Amino acid sequence: MNIKLLTGNSNPKLAREVAEHLGIPISDMIVSRFSDGEIRVQINESMRGEDVFILQSLCSPVNEHIMELLLILDALKRASAGRITAVVPYYAYARQDRKDKPRVPISARLLADLITTAGAQRLVVVDLHSPQIQGFFNIPVDNLYALNVLYEYLRDKVNENTVVVSPDAGGVERARRLANKLGCGIAIIYKRRPEPNVAEVLDLIGDVEGKKAIIIDDMIDTAGTVVSATNLLISKGAVSVSVVATHPVLSGPAIERINTSPISEVVVTNTIPTDNKPCDKLRVVSVAGLIAESIKRIHEGESVSSLFT
Question: What start and end residues bound the annotated signal peptide (predicted)?
């Protein structure tokens, strides 16, 4: 089987970078719209018996990009592809992974069922919001971590006065891993979230006075959490605050909040395109090499477990 790489419209720039790392072209495919808005998919190359990877981030407009992915998967299944792997750098609906209130859906599970039914035989994702989502799938799931990519950017910018901060109790393990790699201390912010997209910062555990703080999170959505955390850290004596995150969702007032906040820089990856996000504080590092290496190992039947650490 040969590697075939396809991409929808969500993140073609990342797909081109991955293709360059692999030394292969992106396969010819049309993903457009009919006049009534329905999605048109047509693959213009033979996929029979091939090892096919579809790269599609499920970012805004989320539902359109999900539908593109499902239709591409269905087309490949009907084209007798040998193996079909969905490469989803950003997995949508990941925060809706349980019933936290009566009469609400478990959206992350529903999306898993849709992707599997459409024809995916394997899934590659980057930094799932909840690693337990892997259990929603009955196919192999490779959850890659962008920590090493972010570390490469940060390692020459830290010193003994640096502290890594988790913006909530759920992110302590992520912060601990980065702190261990950087060889610096850790602090934790406790918060309570009264409703979606509203974060209330409560208190800080750890010492940040006179130190450079690095907040790490898996995603930045409306930026309410990181801006509130930054204000708290500054009030506790931090000399500067940087933010690192894998997924730059950056919805609603996020850019305005970051631009007017005391955050010195925001380091994110390109799992979601940021070309239309005007922010001088934004620094983007690429996960193309990480994704390309996982594709290469999957194709060649090698272990990908070392990429999880």
Answer: none
